Amino acid sequence: MSKEKPCVVPPRRRFLQQSLALIPAVAAGGSLLSAAAGAQTSAPEGVSAHYVPTFFNNDEWRFVLAAVDRLIPQDELGPGAVSEGVPVFIDKQMELPYGYGHLWYMQGPFASAVPELGYQSNLAPRDTWRRGISATNAWCNDKHGKVFADLTHAQQEEILTQLEKGKLDFPQVSGALFFTQMLENTKEGYLADPLHGGNQTLASWKLIGFPGARADYPQVMDHPNQPYPLGPVSISGKRSV
Amino acid sequence: MSIKKDAVDIVIVGFGWTGSLMARELAETGLNIVALERGEARDTWPDFAYPRIADELTYGIRLKLFQNPSKETVTVRHTQSDTALPYRRFGSFLPGDGVGGAGVHWNGMLWRPLEADLKMRSTVIEKYGADFIPADMTVQDYPFTYEEMEPFFDKFEKICGAAGQAGNVQGQKLDGGNPFEAPRQNPYPTKPLKQQYAGMLFSKAAKELGYHPFPVPAANCSEPWTNPYGVQLGVCNYCGFCERFGCFNYSKGSPQSCVLPALRAYNNIELRTHAHVLRVNTDASGTRATGVTYIDHDGQEVEQPASLVVLSAFQLHNVRLLLLSKIGKPYNPATGEGVVGRNYAYQMNGGISLFFKDDKYFNPFAATGTTGMYLDEFNAENFDHSQLGFIGGATISATTTGGRPIQQMTLPASAPKWGTGWKKAIKNNYLHSMSIGSSGSVMPYKQCYLDLDPTYKDLHGQPLLRMTFDWQPNELKMTNFIGTKAEEIARLIGPDHYEMQFKGMDAHYDVRPYQSTHTTGGAVMGDNPATSVVNKYLQSWDVPNLFVLGACCFPQNLAYNPTGIVCATALFAAHAIRTQYLANPGPLVQA
Ligand SMILES: Cc1cc2nc3c(=O)[nH]c(=O)nc-3n(C[C@H](O)[C@H](O)[C@H](O)COP(=O)(O)OP(=O)(O)OC[C@H]3O[C@@H](n4cnc5c(N)ncnc54)[C@H](O)[C@@H]3O)c2cc1C
Ligand code: SF4
Questions:
Q1: Cβ-defined contact of A119 to B237 (cutoff 8 Å)
Q2: CB A193 to CB B200 under 8 A?
Q3: Does A4 touch chain B (CB under 8 A)?
Q4: pTM
Q5: How confident is the model over A95-118, as a mean pLDDT?
Q6: What is the pLDDT of residue B1?
Q7: Which among B141, B456, B513 is positioned nearest to B320, based on CA atoms?
Q8: CB contact under 8 A, B426 and A208
């Protein structure tokens, strides 16, 4: 079940570079776009190197690609979040009612409370991402003279750890809230059905042994404690590469 | 300016489990019935059709089928001296919305109460003396007997094609069932669901300890079945998309799979969706309901006059509608007077996660909302409390309700939260862990109640319901005791590693993690109007042409999931309306 074939996954570096290269190309009128797109034809179906974000601007997109790549990296266990399309997933989510906070009660007055009373921020997911990126980038610039995406992996991981632990905080947004938002959306995109934009090769499901949308298991019940023989299938009928 | 509709005989508010059952039961009277549902129309096909329903993100995480908190939520505080804040982002409990209500996306665990559950107060006093009940605890008896309700428990199980193993049929104890079960007239309609490996390991260990594990009774049909309404159910295929999803297979008991097809034969019933009821209207005396006012699809205010009003809008919404309509005296925690909002309670859970090496496969994706094994040795009065210093108890179980990877991935606390370490952890644990759970009763207290929030409003500008609730020492003691019992079972199963998740004595109610949607009380049933809102037929003491259905009528919270009693009491109320009330409209019980 966990027979990984890492060779079919495009090298993460190349993917990152191409995605990043894309943005100025689009802005410049698309001449580089076709070249980049052409070079990408061997990539597995669905990996969205051609994607132009709708919500995130160019600087933000570079941040998202870099951060998400650290949260779920490509490694010996298979593809990571970036080549699986998780940044695409997150960008799409920001344009849905969820991103606008329309699935939460967002009427004031807002007040802080004991954590047990739950989410009390006035920020919708879009606001948390946008403010978090700009504050983190400003902090990185201040401290390292570079934005987050241009730092080394070790530096990026250190910054993410500080956000996670609440050691890096900003006036515009709580660092811990920003980290939670990033991690939550990254895991959602990595583990959700590919129809939402992430998990494009079903790599996460293959990794853990979840059969996806098969939804028919009387035989599994008849064979307790036995590995399930079939690989995952998505809602659209996609099977793992 | 509000539109006024022609008067009808009966108006039903909310079209979930209780509303749809009431509609079907009253349809045969030939009376004109209008049902008002605030949400959208939904049916098994095409709304829950495979494969689109197998989408964890849309349904399980973004909660597509549930109430949208941006329109309406509650506010929460732990004590009366705190300021309540909105439950902004749903976690702890998930009210339903739309046709079918929470009956669409529930699990289907289908219980009857124990006999002691129904007379909790008198049982405790009889066994341990009145002093055993803490001064602030307002535990009460139910106003009906188990025997009175038995035919209605039986009927609801048949409506669902329920799967299970009976433990006590007409007084005869049966192996493999729950030995503590109250006598049933009939076995379950369909055979028990298949068991998972987790349940098998749990059963083996539980039996070694001298307990009597049994499969959880399930409203998930396990064999071909045609219910008393003439509706055919499908056989469950353990799809793993049960709780939080609609069943595409017509096997999980829901208004869609069990009741709606039978309603199509009647043309005296009209269902209006996108009709959000604002209040019940009463005449000048305040003792007679004249109908309801709602906001329709176009945002217009509509008055619907009716001779009989049935509130079936779910526990929380029923209480709120009573308060907004100024029906019944609101509860005052300072004086202990008043009844609407009194005896609010919410179930208490605990659990243990068990992690194994990769030689054990639990295949959590193969599941129904109700696959698992339970034991009842430590529930209610099934054990002696005299040395324990608490009232109530809990079920202990090994249930797996699905293996959806975003929500249902359990990792050891030491596992990294991200990076390669996290990927290793999900690979090593997803197929190789199981859990033991406990679901505990919660008693009512003077300081735990519902009223209207002074600050926060819903989409229509009406005050939100305010919940003043926290865990009390009695329940925290109970769950700690249960934890020791569950841990013995876990040890015997022998995982590589296990982690306890029972609340400490200093725990506070937390709205973030999902616990259950088993909110109860606020409009309780009883035989005394000073301590209850409705009589045993769920008829309002103050407004006899108003019936209030749902778990708001529970005097206290049980260890079991509520819907068995909720639907049996709704069927009981419908029977009383048909056989007594219609011939002689007026109070069915003299106060
Ligand atoms: C995720 C989940 C799992 C559950 N699992 C179990 C289980 O395993 N076992 C069990 O026993 N119980 C379970 N329950 C609880 C069970 O779903 C409820 O007990 C049951 O559905 C209650 O029925 P009801 O008719 O009172 O309310 P509902 O079925 O919720 O119906 C109420 C309806 O009223 C409508 N409504 C509300 N306000 C208004 C208004 N102002 N105007 C018009 N319409 C309105 C709502 O939209 C809704 O459709 C679960 C619940 C959830 C959410
Ligand atoms: S597990 Fe069974 S009852 Fe539940 S949704 Fe799937 S088929 Fe329906």
A1: no
A2: no
A3: no
A4: 0.94
A5: 98
A6: 63
A7: B456
A8: yes
**Rounded Cα distance, B587 and B564, in Å:** 26
- Whether the complex's predicted ipTM surpasses the cut of 0.90: yes
Ligand 2, atom nearest to B220 Cα = 3
Mutation pick from A177, A210, A216 vs chain B, by most beta carbons of B within 10 Å, is A210
Residue B423: enclosing H or E segment and its boundaries?
helix B419-429
Length of chain B in terms of residues written:
591
Residue A97 burial by CB count (10 A; 0-12/13-18/19+): exposed, middle or buried?
A: middle
Kindly state if the Cβ of B569 falls inside 6 Å of ligand 1: no
Backbone angles phi, psi at B97, to 5 degrees: -160, 150
Helix (H) or strand (E) holding B465: strand B463-468
Q: Does the C-beta of B242 come closer than 6 Å to ligand 2? A: yes
Structure token digits, residue B538: 């769920």
Angle at A46 between CA A45 and CA A52, to 5 degrees: 130
Residue B102 CB less than 6 A away from ligand 1: yes
Instruction: Please answer yes or no on whether A77 and B420 come within 8 Å at the CB atom.
Output: yes
Which residue type does A12 have? R
Joined together, the tokens standing for residue B517 give 């949607």
**With contact defined as beta carbons under 8 Å apart, do B341 and B43 qualify?**
no
Q: Is the pLDDT of residue A167 over 50?
A: yes
Please report which confidence band the pLDDT of residue A23 belongs to, taking 50, 70 and 90 as the band edges. very low
Asked if B518 is an active-site residue, the reply is yes
Q: pLDDT under 70 in chain B at which residues?
A: 1
Q: Are strands B214-215 and B172-173 parallel, antiparallel or unpaired?
A: unpaired
- Helix or strand run (H / E) with residue B18: helix B17-27
Give chain A's mean pLDDT. 85
Contacts of B362 in chain A (CB under 8 A): 225
Put simply, the chain B residues between 389 and 428 with a CB less than 8 A from any chain A CB are: 403, 405-406, 409, 417-420, 422-424, 426-427
C-alpha to C-alpha distances, B20 to B254, B257, B280, nearest whole angstrom: 10, 11, 19
Q: Position B7: which residue type?
A: A
Between the CA of B102 and the centroid of ligand 1 the distance, in Å, is: 3
Best mutation site among B239, B244, B363 for ligand 2, i.e. most ligand atoms within 8 A of its Cβ?
B239
Can you give the pLDDT at residue A241? Answer: 56
Within an 8 Å CB–CB cutoff, is residue A87 touching chain B?
no
**Facing residue for B427 by CB, picked from A188, A207, A216:** A207
Q: Please give the number of the atom of ligand 2 that sits closest to the Cα of B247.
A: 5
**Given CB atoms, is B366 within the 8 Å cutoff of chain A?**
yes
Q: What is the largest CA-CA distance in chain A?
A: 61
Beta-strand pair B74-77/B463-468: parallel
Of A235, A144, A226, A140, the closest CA to residue A197 belongs to A235
Contact criterion met (CB below 8 Å) for B73 and B86: yes
Rounded Cα–Cα distance for residues A217 and B402 (Å): 11
pLDDT above 70 for A38: no
The answer to whether the beta carbons of residues B588 and B144 sit under 8 Å apart is no
- Half-sphere exposure (CA, 13 Å, Cβ side) for B123? 19
- Which residues, 6 or more positions from B50, have their beta carbon under 8 angstroms from its beta carbon? A215, B248, B249
CA atoms within 13 A on the CB side of B256: 27
From chain B, the residues in CB contact with A235 under 8 A are 51-52, 54-55
Closest residue, chain B, to A165 (C-alpha)? B417
Q: What percent of chain A has pLDDT over 70?
A: 79
The label of the residue with tokens 């994706």 reads B365
**Predicted pLDDT at A176:** 98
Test B455 with A109 for CB contact under 8 angstroms. yes
Contacts of B222 (CB under 8 A, 6+ apart): B163, B190, B191, B192, B193, B194, B235, B236
Tell me, yes or no, if A153 comes closer than 8 A to chain B by beta carbon: no
Q: Are strands B214-215 and B225-226 parallel, antiparallel or unpaired?
A: unpaired
Q: Return the closest-CA partner of residue B117 out of B472, B532, B519, B395.
A: B395
